[in-house]
Write a structure and sequence with these properties.
The complex is a heterodimer of chains A (201) and B (215). Chain A is an alpha+beta fold and 201 residues long. Chain A is 21% helix and 29% strand. Chain A has a single domain (7-198), classed as 2-Layer Sandwich (Double Stranded RNA Binding Domain), CATH 3.30.160.670. In chain A, helix 3 (71-83) packs parallel to helix 4. The longest helix of chain A is centred in the N-terminal third of the chain and has 14 residues, at 2-15. Chain B has two domains: 1-30; 31-214, Porin (Beta Barrel), CATH 2.40.160. In chain B, strand 3 and strand 4 (101-122) form a beta hairpin. The longest helix of chain B is centred in the first third of the chain and has 21 residues, at 2-22. Chain B starts with a helix and ends with a strand. The chains are: A alpha+beta (201), B mainly beta (215). At the A-B interface, helix 1, helix 2, strand 1 and strand 11 of A face strand 1, strand 2, strand 3, strand 4 and strand 5 of B. Strand 1 (31-36) of chain A pairs antiparallel with strand 4 (101-122) of chain B, so a sheet runs across the interface.
């Protein structure tokens, strides 16, 4: 009887252990967030320009040199956009000029050495436009390895910047180099797959 | 005049009453037929919207209660119990409050710690019977804590809510003497008003296996 009681109490004690902390596959996973401009209709649009260079930010500072977007990531985005009925414009716009397309996209890679709360503080020059992370979109807390993508209306007047679509891929480049892209590509594919409103067909 | 008389009359009334109560012991008689202590392990299944938050069976839980037999077949007492539910989804997709879409691995966890006044009715199966079926009910409060995590993004909620727990159980007497030991098996329905995220009235079906000692 005493042994049975001891076993029961040991089981009760063991039951209280664990189960509160997230497993590593969650903590070290990646998240894809996307959002379109409220009410915007993408159907009339046809062409896009994808900047082959990505911004690099370190602890909130834009680094002077851009880095090339990994070729596999460029291929992936082009495939997803083509599947949605878009046509790529590859002609590089001149300095201060808007791309000769309906929309333009660029990636921005964020590296931070501390936990950073991002809340609409991201702004940058997108060819002829000064564009900021839009107020309608979520931005959260992250450490390092976040890649943002913004789609800009490149037919809009220069002083009326419109951000049509955003994606934030959290922790996709965590602990890796820019050339190590499987996590980035997996999350980027998810970002397009969960944005069916981009389909212009 | 009346103002002066009123306090004096009140004091006289209190002083007059004091010797009368002092003549008695001042204690209520409390002679329970039996006192029971139960410690048990619990597994549970969340129900309704709580099941959507964290599905599957929880194997983390325990209960401890004290009961005092007040009549032939009735007992009253106090119960503490704790349950934890968690779920890990490799890929979950949610719509954010701003209308965006977020996808990624998620981890949900919820804790409930209940404190209840309990009452039980025992079906008399005869003195020599090893079985003692019972019905019970518990009413009290529950502290609820819940947390959601995806990568390093975390949100959590907590609060104190109402809990009501009907119970159906069976005691299987294993040993009898100055102290009686019995295996205690029961099924409970934990209804709570705990609400968080998309969960309202977080409730669960709970099964207990425990040991009851009575003397």
């Amino acid at each position: 009887m005493r042994r049975a009681s001891c076993i029961l109490f040991a089981a009760i004690a063991a039951a209280g252990c664990g189960g509160y902390d997230a497993p590593d596959e969650v903590t070290f996973g990646s998240v894809a967030y996307t959002q379109q401009a409220p009410g915007f209709d993408f159907k009339p649009l046809n062409t896009y320009y994808l900047d082959p260079q990505m911004e690099v930010w370190h602890d909130g500072e834009l680094q002077p040199a851009f880095q090339p977007v990994p070729p596999q990531t460029l291929d992936l985005i082009n495939q997803k956009m083509a599947a949605y009925g878009w046509t790529a414009v590859t002609q590089t716009p001149g300095p201060g000029q808007a791309p000769a397309s309906d929309v333009g996209m660029r990636l921005a890679y964020f590296k931070t050495t501390y936990t950073y709360y991002y809340s609409g503080g991201y702004c940058s020059i997108y060819w002829a436009y000064y564009a900021c992370w839009p107020g309608y979109a979520y931005a959260g807390q992250y450490t390092t390895g976040t890649v943002l993508t913004m789609m800009i209306d490149t037919k809009a007047p220069v002083n009326q910047t419109k951000v049509l679509w955003v994606s934030a891929l959290y922790a996709v480049l965590l602990g890796s180099t820019i050339e190590d892209t499987p996590r980035l590509n997996t999350a980027m594919a998810r970002a397009f797959d969960q944005s069916p409103y981009l389909n212009t067909k | 005049m009346n103002r002066a008389i009123a306090p004096a009359a009140l004091a006289a009334l209190v002083l007059a009453a004091w010797p009368a109560s002092a003549q008695q012991s001042g204690w209520e008689e409390y002679r329970p037929n039996k006192t029971l202590f139960t410690a048990g392990y619990q597994i549970s299944q969340p129900l309704g919207s709580f099941h959507d938050y964290t599905g599957g069976t929880s194997f983390r839980g325990f209960t401890f209660d004290w009961r005092s037999i007040l009549g032939a077949n009735f007992s009253a007492g106090l119960r503490f119990n704790w349950n934890r539910w968690n779920e890990n989804q490799a890929l979950a997709t949610v719509t954010t409050p701003s209308g965006g879409t977020m996808s990624g691995p998620t981890f949900h966890v919820a804790d409930q710690f209940g404190v209840q006044a309990i009452g039980h009715y025992y079906f008399d199966m005869g003195r020599d019977s090893r079985l003692l079926p019972f019905l019970g009910v518990g009413l009290g409060g529950v502290w609820s804590n819940s947390r959601q995590q995806t990568i390093d993004l975390v949100s959590s909620q907590d609060g104190f809510y109402f809990i009501a727990t009907p119970e159906l159980g069976l005691m299987f007497n294993l040993a009898r003497g100055a102290t009686t030991a019995a295996l205690n098996l029961s099924v409970l329905y934990n209804f709570t008003t705990a609400s968080f995220r998309n969960v309202s009235n977080a409730s669960a079906l709970v099964e207990t296996i425990g040991m009851t000692f009575s003397y």
